[in-house]
Give the backbone structure.
Amino acid sequence: MSKSRKPHDPIHTANLEQGRPLVHEALSRLERELATARRQHSVLKLIHGYGSSGVGGDLRIAVQKRLRELQDDGQIRACIFGEDWTTSDARAWELLKFHPELKRDSDLGRANRGITIVWL
């Protein structure tokens, strides 16, 4: 369900679309992944797809809506959608200043709408 790099790395990656879950299942998985990441990491990279198969679009919309709510409530520092995960985005640049090793992330600058970066 999730893949984590070395324990001292700031990022944790979770694939919410694995197994083609229903939206409510993916949102439950999101909450579990956030709880896990908060204990061990400062950044969570979510893979939710972007709807190319006709399924991921609903997941993407629901996950990003929930993340916006968490951000508005102050429960996460920021959510950076894949299309904004670039050095020219102010929030992404701020995160990269805190964690320069994230500049090596394979999705940085690729406008990948199938991911979201969560700064915990």
About this structure: The first strand starts at residue 2 and ends at 4. The chain has one domain: 7-119. The radius of gyration is 13 Å.
